[in-house]
What we know:
Two copies of one chain form a homodimer. Chain A is an alpha/beta fold. Chain A has eight helices and nine strands.
Amino acid sequence: xNNSLFTAQHTSNGVVERDFRIGDVSGVLWSPADxxxxxxxxxxxxxxGLHKRSPGLVGRARDxxxxxxxxxxxxxxxxxxxxxxxAEDQYxxxxxxxxxxxxxxxxxxxxAYNSSLAERAVPEWxxxxxxxxxxxxxxxxxxxGYSGMTLASAIGIPLVVAESRITAxxxxxVFVYDALTRxxxxxxxxxxxxxxxxxxxxxxxxGLALFEEFASQDKTLHAFPGSHFTVPVERVDTRFFxxxxxx
Amino acid sequence: xNNSLFTAQHTSNGVVERDFRIGDVSGVLWSPADxxxxxxxxxxxxxxGLHKRSPGLVGRARDxxxxxxxxxxxxxxxxxxxxxxxAEDQYxxxxxxxxxxxxxxxxxxxxAYNSSLAERAVPEWxxxxxxxxxxxxxxxxxxxGYSGMTLASAIGIPLVVAESRITAxxxxxVFVYDALTRxxxxxxxxxxxxxxxxxxxxxxxxGLALFEEFASQDKTLHAFPGSHFTVPVERVDTRFFxxxxxx
Lengths: 247, 247
């Protein structure tokens, strides 16, 4: 047990919320007040420009605790949330904003920036998992899932390839580049893939093509009108983690 | 109340199963043993060549009764199950089998046959609904849904356009022809659409294009590897009717 992991704790409406810090990485763990050893853990990634306490993420995390009895962890991606941003990351972001404003393609910049973030974030998630699975209410054998769209898929797809403790994942709405496609070919765990059909910046064809590449036998695509900002959570909810993260 | 509707009844494991006959049409109603007025009713269509008691349909019907407390009705399509087949229907079927064996396109024959079946089946479903909604455990205000893939979508899509009592529907895996596309443009109720991605006879592109045509604001596509014979029910289950058929 590593109680020194946590820097703050409070409980509201049956959900225990604890802040933690591992090196440079700040995170939050939401868990049931009555969590017992083996409680399934869902790692939730945030989208680009957002952070570990973005309202949508917090809502999904609390639902997972209250409805499924799962624990949920979120960490800030490099240069997001509480974390300082490197000059190089800022350069990429400025570049993307300028490209968007000029109506130019952001493809090369997004590919470079997201790949770099993923390279840094994958080991951070792994260290987070190492630390959290030492908690008595989780434990080394707790089932682990990963969930996240957009930037969180750019990070999560290589993460689930590198990290065999993650046994089920939800991805989607992600800008596709070659390194991501190659990573998808090595994903074999059950996945759900969320595809916004009318995203102004990510084509449905690229999403369908990426879905094809996943090597998973158990994979399902959920598509809906609108953009990645308007995921109809209740309409795509198949109790995926409740089915897959079984103690 | 119209008790003369039913020709047979038995109860097993909490599900009441009653056979009914309305004119030439034979059907089955599954309902909870403790059904009370306003119980939601799901109309379940069967696929081409199948019938009202095909094992997959019976399994889904019993699940809907036991899990959601819904009633479920199925009827045989014209020339299917207990119903005699007209010479013209037999001609179309022979034609399709010959075309398939010769490796020729079945498109024109399927379009003609399915359109004709739909023209006949839509009023049959409406008469069935008239009769069933007179049962005290349902009643005129019972919420009504429709569910069915392949032939059952070819029938169901024009049915939900014609029949305003149906307020939510699940379709999918259907051979697309012009009349069906035109009907889809008039569908405005919430729908789920199931799309097999690797069906040997129905292209994914035609399914995506049909999904686009539905005028429904609330529509979601669920796609999965394999053919329409291998729908992964548990992976696409979003409790659709439990959310939409509210008393």
